[in-house]
């Protein structure tokens, strides 16, 4: 008799064999930015996903979510784009020049989309826990030396100095499918680490993205504990970050009721959310 293993069950809920139908924006990015022939994009993506899954069996990899570029239509993303587009000055240390860091950047697809849409690559930075994701991204987009800056490191490890190269350089941070992976205490540590990325003297920093949230804030049990937020709890968390770092933040959360979260370990009250975290004057 066959007994389903924990790994088999995880893959059953988090791995989809076939490419999704609605990935035309990603195909276009490969064709226009990387000059991949149209007939070769799907095979390249299948090959790339296989490599990524071997590194980490994340739902965003197994379900092809990393191909989703719909987030660029989010209002917070549009705000970030306009700030990057309208920044002035060539001095990267100038506080008048906005820069964006993509946390948990995976293959750097969002950064390549920004470059394709006209943002100067030297204003764009990416970080991920897995250095392999970054190198796989460079191979996927075939753009070694493109001007983007990447750093692989662990934001929870105080002994990991790999991310120090980003300190004091950032004004805008994008974090998709990221905070919901961690406990409250870990999210506070991440928030404190984020403030070190910010340019000295910046007063209008923006942190935005999407993740799984909930109508009922709680610590989620499972293979790895994590804390899920609504508007009030996420504001409370960033109040704590602000208290510990001498900063102040205003949180805006939008909850989607369009579809339920059908990933193991999530409940009926859990929803996909988009958020913006705005720095406020002290």
TrEMBL record:
UniProt keyword annotations, A-Z: S-adenosyl-L-methionine, Transferase
A Gene Ontology molecular function term of the record: transferase activity
Xref: PANTHER family: METHYLTRANSFERASE AUSD
Protein name (database record): Methyltransferase domain-containing protein
Residue ranges occupied by any Methyltransferase domain in the UniProt entry: 101-201
Residues annotated as signal peptide: none
Record Pfam families: Methyltransf_25
Pathway assignment: Secondary metabolite biosynthesis
Similarity field: Belongs to the class I-like SAM-binding methyltransferase superfamily.
Gene3D superfamilies found in the cross-reference section: Vaccinia Virus protein VP39
Biological source species: Hypocrea virens (strain Gv29-8 / FGSC 10586) (Gliocladium virens)
């Amino acid at each position: 008799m066959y007994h389903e293993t924990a790994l088999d069950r995880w893959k059953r809920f988090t791995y989809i064999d076939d490419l999704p139908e609605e990935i035309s924006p990603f195909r276009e990015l490969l064709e226009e930015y990387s000059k991949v022939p149209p007939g070769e994009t799907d095979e390249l993506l299948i090959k790339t996903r296989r490599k990524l899954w071997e590194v980490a069996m994340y739902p965003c990899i197994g379900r092809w979510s990393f191909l989703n570029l719909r987030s660029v239509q989010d209002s917070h993303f549009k705000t970030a784009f306009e700030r990057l587009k309208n920044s002035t000055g060539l001095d990267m240390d100038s506080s008048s020049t906005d820069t964006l860091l993509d946390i948990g950047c995976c293959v750097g697809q969002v950064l390549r989309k920004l470059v394709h849409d006209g943002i100067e690559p030297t204003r764009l930075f990416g970080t991920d826990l897995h250095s392999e994701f970054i190198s796989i991204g460079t191979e996927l987009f075939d753009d070694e030396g493109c001007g983007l800056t990447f750093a692989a490191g662990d934001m929870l490890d105080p002994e990991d100095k790999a991310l120090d190269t980003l300190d004091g350089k950032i004004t805008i941070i994008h974090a998709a499918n990221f905070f919901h992976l961690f406990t409250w205490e870990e999210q506070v540590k991440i928030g404190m680490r984020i403030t070190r990325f910010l340019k000295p003297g910046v007063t209008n920093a923006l942190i935005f993205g999407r993740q799984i949230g909930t109508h009922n804030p709680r610590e989620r049990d499972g293979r790895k504990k994590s804390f899920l937020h609504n508007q009030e709890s996420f504001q409370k968390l960033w109040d704590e970050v602000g208290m510990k770092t001498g900063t102040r933040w205003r949180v805006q959360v939008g909850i989607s009721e369009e579809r339920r979260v059908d990933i193991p370990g999530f409940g009926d009250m859990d929803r996909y959310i988009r958020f913006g975290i705005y720095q406020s004057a002290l």
